[in-house]
What does this fold into?
Amino acid sequence: MSKNMYSISRLTKPLPNVKLENLREYINFNLIILQILIVLTTIRWIPGVHPRSIRNVWKVLMVLFILYQTYAQLRDHKIVLPWIYLLSAAVLVGLGIFAYGFLTDSLIIAFGCVTVIYFYQNKNSLKIIFHTFTIWLTIVTLYSLIITFTPLSGFDMAFPLYDGYVSPEVRFSNSSIELNSFGFFGERGIYSITSVGLILSYVYYVKLNSKLSKLYLLSSYILFTQLITIYWLTGSGRAGFVLPIFFVIVMLLQKTSNESILPLVVFSPLFLWTGLYLIKDYQTVRPLLESLNNLISNRIALYFDSIQLLTSNLQSFFGWGPNPWGEYTRAEMEITNSIGSPRSMLTRPHNFLFEFMIQYGILLGCFLIYICWTVSRGTIQEIRQPTSPTRFALGVILTGTIFTGLAVGGKIGPYPINTPQMIFWWIAFGGFVSDIH
It folds into this structure.
């Protein structure tokens, strides 16, 4: 038995037999659920359907997946838990979030843990799901570009400009606005999923020895054009270029023999922000900090606020609970950092680790760090000894989104701002972690 697998034989009587030919029918059902879920992560609404309805579909599908996979395990009379320590850390993170009442986020993490078990037993499903996702995203992106440069009557751009931006909820409450178009992936956050698709399509182009590889090259061009278009028209989306840059860094580290190199690179933004915080009061570095803060949209100020809060208050070990951002002022939190423009309220830090620790505490945050560190070490193993193009791409995507989330606050990660991005990350996590060697 593999050292990374923990097997528990069932001590109770077998469950009653059901009218199914075999366990494979359950597995196929869960494959369909995963394919639907990963496609839905790119969609905020479809014509005439409110975003809230899409969110409810996500939740129902995740619950169904967990229930069917659990039943399949019990019916097989054995529970298989690959990577017991990693799964335990994820379960503790999910339970901590659940204790604070964030039911959706804890459901997503529970779902992610179950996908590890599913992919461990069904390795071929991984390539089916992510090939489907890449093809779908390319079609979606092509549609987005067409209605951007060749406007169709009644159809809005897939990503809004800053001028005149209206949230989906407000749009749906205004009966005078026609919603004939599709809403894609968090709207302004569409650059994040575009960069993910770009990595998948390029890896498939390079590593697939088939006629499909040329189609994936075309897909890469389409997705890269989308990244350029988003930045050109909106002035935002710089974070979308971080993942491709990180891909280049990973390729440079491909020959390294030290498995800790990549995790150190992934967490280097955290070391950088902490180091800059320690020297922020020196007048010689002040102009540099102000310039860097302006370059990355006031992020330095938010990071310094977070570091001061986490290092100066004993409550930081247990956190301040969900959504403290509009509840506390900076003065109430005794934050004195003066970098950047003045702010009265505690503001979301745009860094998933700082955000998680402020909400749920440093102690629970250590488990999240362990998860991210383990994924990073698994990635360096994968790029040195690739097992499949899909797992190779997912390793880069998982570690790259962690790096982006720590560097500039990307939209995808283990604990990001929006639900669909989090669902995508945990599906990718399940597929990658299930076969770390």
Observations:
- Confidence is low (pLDDT under 50) at residues 1-23.
